[in-house]
Design a protein that fits this description.
4-stranded antiparallel beta sheet, alpha+beta, 106 residues, globular
Length: 106
């Protein structure tokens, strides 16, 4: 799998609950339509391990078969629509991508 990983924080005027509801609701409806999307995992952050890790609300891992498939998704009208929906929200995010390696499975 090739993953796009997004760590996001809500806009300052939103509550954590509102942001998660939007992300898993209205925004999810657009995300599901991304071409080539194989899996999507979302984690609601409810605690930070340490002070330097505070201030984040959620993590999304969007999985594709290859870097090329992710590139196609990022160039798609569906991605453009999702980006437009975010607009000028004023939240923060970190977006990184890379190959997945399963390190352990019970």
């Amino acid at each position: 799998m090739y993953n796009l990983v997004l760590l996001a924080a809500r806009p300052p005027e939103w509550t954590h609950e509102r942001f998660i509801e939007w992300w898993r609701g209205d925004h999810a409806e657009l995300t599901y339509r991304l071409p080539g999307l194989r899996a999507w995992r979302h984690t609601e952050v409810d605690a930070a391990l340490e002070p330097r890790s505070e201030g984040w609300d959620g993590i999304s891992v969007l999985s594709f078969d290859s870097p090329e498939d992710l590139k196609k998704a990022l160039a798609s009208p569906e991605w453009a629509e999702a980006v437009a929906q975010v607009g000028d929200m004023k939240g923060r995010r970190i977006a990184v991508m890379g190959h997945e390696a399963e390190m352990f499975a019970a």
